[in-house]
From TrEMBL:
Keywords per UniProt: Membrane, Transmembrane, Transmembrane helix
Protein's UniProt keywords contain Membrane: yes
Naturally occurring in which organism (per UniProt): Rhizobium hidalgonense
Membrane-spanning segments: 39-57, 178-198, 204-222
Protein name (record): DUF4239 domain-containing protein
Pfam families in the record: Bestrophin-like (PF14023)
Cross-referenced InterPro entries: DUF4239 (IPR025333)
Lineage: Bacteria, Pseudomonadati, Pseudomonadota, Alphaproteobacteria, Hyphomicrobiales
Length: 250
């Protein structure tokens, strides 16, 4: 969606530049005028390159953090299951609830909208983990070992719940809208000057079309990486799939 809008803006800017070129007097497009236009374009081009670099770094950081969060969440779920298994058969119901939580997570996706809301008879994920914690609190440890395992299980389940709320709070961050709008304006200005200086022949039009498509594709990839749980470039749920295979073992 965003990449398509950028492509439309750049194509429109190029077309406007070519239309203006046809209506300007010849002395407005003299060699001296073109030199000034190129100098001004170089400044805007440098700023656009810096802005794109910052957006790429921000999107890559968001994607890398999401990958770490996915692996950490899977590791904590496995740790919680193993701690409950060590406690004894009294935690069988809590372990079953934990497995159901992961099954729902895999079927509903890893986004704030799907995990925080109820779906049909399925509860929101935060209610699932709270049910696990409720079962853990209701346990009656028989000795110091079970008491320590109960405390540890509650600690780890708290970290699993914290991961969920971190996802909810950061789920709508994405790219900074104002920064992206300014970048699109700069890029549109660049392509307008390209159209202003270029003769409208098929070769030039093809090159400008490919350039606009390339820039729009770059913005699309940046936007996709900034939302790492949805879209084409998304974080793999393989760690959770692997965790599912180990849950519930004796």
């Amino acid at each position: 969606m965003l990449g398509g809008l950028v492509f439309v803006f750049l194509s429109a800017a190029t077309s406007i530049g070519m239309m203006v070129r046809g209506r300007l007097p010849d002395h407005h497009l003299s060699s001296e005028s073109k030199d000034v236009i190129r100098l001004a374009t170089a400044v805007v081009g440098t700023l656009s390159a810096l802005a794109l670099g910052l957006l790429i770094a921000s999107a890559k950081s968001a994607y890398d953090n999401a990958e770490v969060e996915m692996r950490t969440a899977a590791a904590r779920v496995l740790l919680l299951d193993r701690v409950m298994a060590q406690y004894g058969p009294e935690t069988d119901n809590a372990r079953r609830l934990l497995r159901q939580l992961i099954e729902r997570r895999l079927s509903r996706g890893w986004t704030a909208e799907t995990t925080d809301a109820a779906s049909g008879k399925a509860l929101g994920e935060y209610q699932d983990i709270e049910a696990v914690q409720g079962d853990l609190r209701s346990l009656s440890p028989r000795d110091a070992v079970q008491h320590a395992l109960q405390t540890r299980a509650l600690d780890v389940s708290g970290m699993v719940a914290e991961t969920h709320w971190l996802l909810v709070e950061s789920g709508s961050e994405g790219l900074p809208g104002a920064f992206l709008a300014v970048l699109v304006c700069w890029l549109s200005l660049l392509f307008a000057t390209f159209g202003l200086q270029a003769p409208p022949n098929p070769t030039v039009l093809s090159i400008l079309f490919v350039c606009a498509l390339s820039v729009a594709g770059a913005v699309f990839l940046i936007s996709d990486m900034a939302n790492p749980y949805i879209g084409l470039v998304r974080v793999s749920d393989a760690p959770l799939q692997s965790a599912m295979e180990r849950l519930g073992r004796p």
